[in-house]
Amino acid sequence: MAQTPNKPQVRKRFRCDSIASVPQFTNSPTMIVMVGLPARGKTYISKKLTRYLNWIGVPTKVFNVGQYRRDAVRTYKNFEFFRPDNEEAMKIRKACARSALSDVGTYFMLEHGQAAVFDATNTTRERREIILSYAKDNGYKVFFIESICDDPEIIAENIKQVKLSSPDYIDCDKEEAVADFLKRIECYKVTYVPLDDDKDSHLSYIKIFNVGSRYLVNRVQDHIQSRIVYYLMNIHVTPRTIYLCRHGESELNLVGRIGGDSGLSPRGSQFAGALGKYIKSQSIPDLKVWTSHMKRTIQTAEALGVAYEQWKALNEIDAGVCEDLTYEEIQANYPEEFALRDQDKYRYRYPKGESYEDLVQRLEPVIMELERQENVLVVCHQAVMRCLLAYFLDKSAEELPYLKCPLHTVLKLTPVAYGCKVESVSLNIEAVNTHRDRPAGDEPPCTLLAPPSRHHSRAQPMASPVPTRAPRLQDLGVTSLSLQNVEVSREPEEALLTVPDHI
Amino acid sequence: MNSGEGCSEEIPLPSSPRELTQNPLKKIWIPCKNGLPEKHIFQRKVCMTNCPTLIVTVGLPARGKTYISKKLTRYLNWIGVPTKEFNVGQYRRECVKIYKSFEFFSPDNEEGLKIRKQCASAALNDVRQYLTDEGGQVAVFDATNTTRERRDTITRFAEQNGFKVFFVESVCEDPAVINENIVQVKLGSPDYTHCNTDEAVEDFMKRIKCYENSYQTLDEVLDRDLSYIKIIDVGRRYLVNRVQDHIQSRIVYYLMNIHITPRSIYLCRHGESDMNVKGRIGGDSGLSLRGKDFARRLGQFIQKQDISDLKVWTSQMKRTIQTAEGLNVPYEQWKALNEIDAGVCEEMMYEEIQDHHPLEFALRDQDKYRYRYPKGESYEDLVQRLEPVIMELERQENVLVICHQAVMRCLLAYFLDKSAEELPYLKCPLHTVLKLTPVAYGCKVESIFLNVDAVNTHRDRPENVEVSRMAEEALYTVPAHQ
């Protein structure tokens, strides 16, 4: 059975729809289908891959069939539900899969999704045929990701990390839960048919063996599948910690100027020293330290007394004609630009400069290498740190430019279960505040930029509803009582409402 | 899976942080003592491993090993990883001046076996010298290496010398592919200069047979501790085992993106711009009248070429987009294809740069590849920026790239395997299309001038590059402009 769709959903490549930094490699949407026994890391991979794809600008969503099952069958009794001869349960499970598939269709057709991760065991050829059929009828590409693991230690660790706390086992004690889950796996083993290198040679897939020591890649069709394969081959599950912080307070920070390449202020140097002490106290084995090419991050790293690597890709966002200006000066000289930026801070590109969207593009190799590495300290800049943080904490394009990354604060990120634990460590050295808040209020009026949803919107997860009421001022940390005006026609005072204090 | 790259050397925590000085050529901040830069420049390079890497090809004759070796070497060098290939067949040809027939490769030809073993050893010796004494970071050992015994010898050699080993095996049983291979690269080999086609093909087939009986493919179980990629049927399928580090990961990614489907890549610059006419660099101006004329001619040229499914790429600068508009076909904009950022020198004429920044102007002439404009970029930065474009070009088939002078030089250097020294001086005149067609182990280039006059924007390296030179000496090679 051929995989090429017979009714290709060709999204016409518009003349110049790419306001983004890179072309949009979209023809048909792609269904990424997980395959594997329980506790093989399918959901871990699904969530991580989805996070990565969304971050690089490919609207992606996970459809976890287990979740549909939990919604259908309110209470989980035991593993018997998963017995292959349990007809009643089989009916329910099939219905859940179909419901999830239907939602995939909705996501693609109505919500501008480009990739959907179908997270379920999909261990029988029959189930996979249903999916392939559905995709073919609708013109979607299919890419399978099969996780194969027979190392009992890995499986046990897996169960401990994510199964024991699952809603299914909320009322069980640990031993009961483990015993039941192992029986559940046995239920699947009976009918498990892995992807076959001969029979399935026409399909596009990657098989991951033993958490990445080996991979089998078959028929990569296009750019996005190639990127997915590259990403999957670079991630690992070895425990490690990533430290993110900005350079110490700089001379330009002090006077409220953006960009430039100034050195550290006296307080900034103090921070660098404190950072060195903190890092030593953490006793991190084999820590890599990365900085940008800008003086202030390098000066900060110098105080640590360890080897560090400079990455040009970690340089602060290029503010183009606004480099070295204060916000007041930007308002005075480029009021329209200033307003446009507030309307869509993620996509807004400084004249002769960059946008946050460009930054993400630039930082992708950094993220890829961070995935490969283990313990790393990244000394960078405000906008850069926001982008990196958004990747690790799965923040949307709308939230990203407003993430709080204050000076003299280290964020310690530790992967745990399906996400990332964040600890914020302030090194107790005073510094100016460089955070300029998001303007409060409802949807900004018609922007001069392309509507976000067309390219890079993060689709709202089905579970969390879109807030319908206007957010309260206190929620947004807006100190003034009036709502910020983002219109080009606004008065200078209105524009400068949220500019933090400086000399 | 452990990365095991580099090491965190402990430098004693200084009582006061070291002073920083900015390298005037590359604009890199480095620590200095008494005003002099310290030795270590901790700059991110692709290959942060202390260990050099030995890439070993594996496979029967006519499976594309040399093609892969050369292409991979070209790519690694372009991204800044000093790489060299060592083709054992080449050593054999130097040793055994005249090739008689396939009999040389017969497994019971003891004399032949002895010579072949010697050649392999000689090549490994040169590998050692390259990686240990000559600053090489990657060596590609291109030979059949079809027996486990031979591979064990190589692995032992690598261990003794502290090199990492990564195997690249090419497996293919498709007779059509093998035949095409023989036609493309074997018939023209020095071994067969005195044979006619049929003789050559017949002999080569027998040569392959000599290897077949003793061929031990990389085995999932027996070789599970080795790091390798097995390429099956020219990329339909890959088996990747134990990627150890960053460079191996990049190599795998590259190998998984290349293909051998015949296609053409067209490179050209935007039409002549208003800035070009005034002799100014950078900026974001529109096309001059002649530039617009070129855009029209380019459209006609593309039509006549009748290229199937052509993709057109531009930068995000006005002049390339205006050029593409003249083609009346869909095109995609890449920010990565934007011209080199000349920083403080943007929109200046060379005369003005000499006037306002004579030191910078001289430094640039001293090392044009590594020189970074203040608040701008270097060619070296450009290559970094263009790597995803190259990767996508490898994936694609027929593409027309409308870009800029410095960008085009970088792309051309990749396809034509030009060094960092030559790259910034490659000739990429306006209104000229370069048609690149992969052939055998390299690239055929056709230069097509579309008959619309334009200014010359090529500035040759002047004789005097000293900071102390006179203005006239600096401006000697500046091309004429309004």
Automatic annotation (TrEMBL), chain A:
Which is one GO molecular function term here?
A: ATP binding
Q: Which GO terms describe its cellular component?
A: 6-phosphofructo-2-kinase/fructose-2,6-biphosphatase complex
Question: Catalytic site residues?
Answer: H247 (tele-phosphohistidine intermediate), E316 (proton donor/acceptor)
Q: Keyword Protease on this protein?
A: no
Where does the source fall among the domains of life?
Eukaryota
Boundaries of every 6-phosphofructo-2-kinase domain copy: 21-239
Q: Where does substrate bind?
A: R246, H247, G248, E249, S250, E251, L252, N253, R296
User: PANTHER family given for it?
Assistant: 6-PHOSPHOFRUCTO-2-KINASE/FRUCTOSE-2,6-BISPHOSPHATASE, 6-PHOSPHOFRUCTO-2-KINASE_FRUCTOSE-2,6-BISPHOSPHATASE 1
Name under which the protein is recorded: 6-phosphofructo-2-kinase/fructose-2, 6-bisphosphatase-like isoform X3
Q: Which InterPro entries match?
A: 6Pfruct_kin (IPR003094), 6Phosfructo_kin (IPR013079), His_Pase_superF_clade-1 (IPR013078), His_PPase_superfam (IPR029033), P-loop_NTPase (IPR027417), PG/BPGM_mutase_AS (IPR001345)
- Role noted for this protein: Synthesis and degradation of fructose 2,6-bisphosphate.
Stretch list, region Disordered: 435-470
* A Pfam family hit: His_Phos_1
User: What's the subunit arrangement here?
Assistant: Homodimer.
Organism, scientific name: Clupea harengus (Atlantic herring)
Q: Name one GO biological process term.
A: fructose metabolic process
Which protein family is named in the record? Answer: In the C-terminal section; belongs to the phosphoglycerate mutase family.
What are the entry keywords?
Answer: ATP-binding, Hydrolase, Kinase, Multifunctional enzyme, Nucleotide-binding, Phosphoprotein, Transferase
Automatic annotation (TrEMBL), chain B:
Domain of life assignment: Eukaryota
Residues at the catalytic site: H270 (tele-phosphohistidine intermediate), E339 (proton donor/acceptor)
Q: Which GO annotations describe the biological process of this protein?
A: fructose 2,6-bisphosphate metabolic process; fructose metabolic process
Q: Which gene encodes it?
A: LOC122130788
Which PANTHER family does the annotation name?
A: 6-PHOSPHOFRUCTO-2-KINASE/FRUCTOSE-2,6-BISPHOSPHATASE, 6-PHOSPHOFRUCTO-2-KINASE_FRUCTOSE-2,6-BISPHOSPHATASE 4
Output this protein's name: 6-phosphofructo-2-kinase/fructose-2, 6-bisphosphatase 4-like isoform X1
One Pfam short name? 6PF2K
Please provide the record's keywords in A-Z order: ATP-binding, Hydrolase, Kinase, Multifunctional enzyme, Nucleotide-binding, Phosphoprotein, Transferase
Query: Record-annotated residues binding substrate?
Result: R269, H270, G271, E272, S273, D274, M275, N276, R319
Q: Where is the 6-phosphofructo-2-kinase domain?
A: 48-262
